[in-house]
Amino acid sequence: MGALTLHFKATYRQLKMYIWFVLVIIVFGRMTELFITSLTEDSNVSRLSETNMLIILLPLIAIVLPLSYYKRMVHLGATRKQVFWGLHGVYAIWAALVALINSLWILIQMKVFHNYASVVDLVDAFHWNDFGFLGSFLYQTAFYLMVMALLSMLASGYSNPVGWLLSALLLTAIPLGTAISSLRVYVISFFETLLFNDSLLLGVGYNLLLYLLFAAGGWLFTRVRAH
Amino acid sequence: MSIALACYNLSKSYGPTAALQHLNLQLEENVIYGLLGRNGAGKTTLLNTIAGAIAAESGTIEVYGKRLSKREHPEDFCYVRSQFRHFGGARVMEALQIAATFYPRWDWTFARELLDIFLVDQDKKIRQLSSGTQSLIGNIIGLASRASLTLYDEPVLGLDVLMRERFYKALMEDYANYPRTILLSTHLIDEIAPVAEHIFILESGTLLLQDHMEHIRKSAYLLRGNAEAVTSFTDGKRVIYQEAYGRGMLAAIYEPLTDADMLHVRKLDLSIEMLSLQKLFLYLIEGGL
Question: Structural domain tally of chain B?
């Protein structure tokens, strides 16, 4: 069994309950929505794209795994490095999988179901579909990976005072940045550059740069973690 | 014989409590060592430090001559913890399959044999097993990994006498066929005596005693008799414990005795008996050497 397959299987075992819970919630949510809309006259009720809900899995994976997977794997004989790279491989698979599903689903909705008008889709909202199927897939994968690396870094630092400080700083920086008007410009510009970049190369590049930064931070916490 | 593991001047504390104090320890290649000590003596801290699970505040660790950096996991190394964190939802075989990928010398035939010996159902989920059986999974990994340096922290904790004996037997037989360096920490002192070739006794983070089992067997004695006679005989000898009762005295000594010494004992009308490892441990801890 290859190292990545092993980590993917082992993490799936660890996440199985969460994954199925999210999937059941999505299905139930959609069924409830269908039931309610069938009772109303208004057929133009907007709804969130079904596959966008899958994105919930990604922060869940990035938070749960560093907390519950690390010790178990190390106790079975893995080194810190093996666990760290294994987790990032797993993040990449999930990020790519969700990005692929979202990129495909928007195409299916537009070209097969023709029911796109009342759907709110993040891929469309961030104009990622302007870059075509492959561009949308790449942009999403890079963005999802970056967010997963950030959350994984914070979760890995849970037993470290620096980790707590970093979490506190990030939690205060976002509301503070949006509340102070002089800072708001920079905050908006930062998120625009990251999420709404007109250049695919720059958009993906900035996200990957941040991913590398957060992954490096995650490694610094992982290499000093006790087990 | 070459040195498999060397610890120099290791110190580690938890707040005001010193768990390891300038500890020096060397393990030779292909020897089974027993690590003894009462609760809180620093055994697990020492094993965790060697495994790179925690970092010592000072001191160095070398494995096969390679100096390890702080928290570095040694190569070709296996550490079986007493508090083994399992994937509860995984089946026994799945856990072993994961472990097998981390040990280049993993022996599947032996692992399956051990599952039979320890009566562990490979298809059962780990959370369905008793705590004793769960700890056996760690022991199976420790044995089947065949790592050249293997540490066990309380491997027989929670096991019944049958499984304990089976573990020692499997360990000894496999060690005879595939010699390697093994360090076993345990509270069941007399059980380790036939297994270990060399003993370390740890107390308050320092080594109270380290010696070959063979030398221990020839050196640990308990003397009883008239207080004056006991004092006269033990004069100049390494007395690890003594206790007066009425006119009599009991003394535990740690020194190999010659035939002349034995003759002297008989002349002084003293009773003498060899100390078990457990009694030696007890007297050492009580007497503080």
Answer: 2
Could you tell me if B278 lies within 8 Å of chain A, comparing CB atoms? Answer: no
Q: Which residue in A has a C-alpha nearest to residue B94's C-alpha? A: A10
B68 shares its domain with B131? yes
SS (H, E, C) A8-31: HHHHHHHHHHHHHHHHHHHHHHHH
Residue B241 lies in a domain: yes
Mean pLDDT, range A136-147, rounded to an integer: 97
**Domain containing residue B52: CATH number:** 3.40.50.300
Sheet holding B17-28: strands in order across? Answer: B17-28, B3-14, B58-63, B66-67
Predicted TM-score (pTM) of the model is 0.90
The CATH number covering residue B222 comes to 3.30.70.240
Ramachandran area for residue B209 (φ above 0: left; ψ -120 to 50: alpha; else beta): beta
Q: Which of B204, B232, B248 is the endpoint of a domain?
A: B204
Task: Quote the pLDDT of residue B289.
Answer: 45
- Give the pLDDT band (50/70/90) at residue A42: low
Q: Which chain A residues are Cβ-neighbours of B53 within 8 angstroms?
A: 74, 226-227
Is the residue at B97 inside a domain? yes
- Which residue is it, tokens 């097969």? A112
- Closest chain B C-alpha to A168 CA, distance in angstroms: 26
Tell me: do B119 and B248 sit in the same domain: no
Task: Find, in chain B, the residue whose alpha carbon is nearest to that of A1.
Answer: B101
B55 in reach of chain A (CB within 8 A): yes
Same domain? B44 vs B156: yes
Same domain, B198 and B237: no
**Would residue B209 count as lying in a domain?**
no
Smallest Cβ–Cβ distance between B97 and the set A1, A16, A73 belongs to A1
Residues B198 and B257 placed together within one structural domain of the fold: no
Are B139 and B182 contacting, i.e. CB atoms less than 8 angstroms apart?
no
Q: Of the ranges A144-153, B104-113, B233-242, which one carries the lowest mean pLDDT score?
A: B233-242
Range of the domain at B85: 3-204
Nearest-angstrom CA–CA distance, B70 and B57:
9
Q: Which residue of B has its CA nearest to A82?
A: B102
For residues B23 and B54, state if they share a domain.
Answer: yes
Sheet holding B271-274, edge to edge: B239-245, B248-254, B220-226, B271-274
Residues of chain B in contact with residue A76, where contact means CB-CB under 8 angstroms, are: 95, 98-99, 102, 141
What ipTM, to 2 d.p.? 0.89
Task: Tell me the shortest Cα–Cα distance from A81 to chain B, in angstroms.
Answer: 10
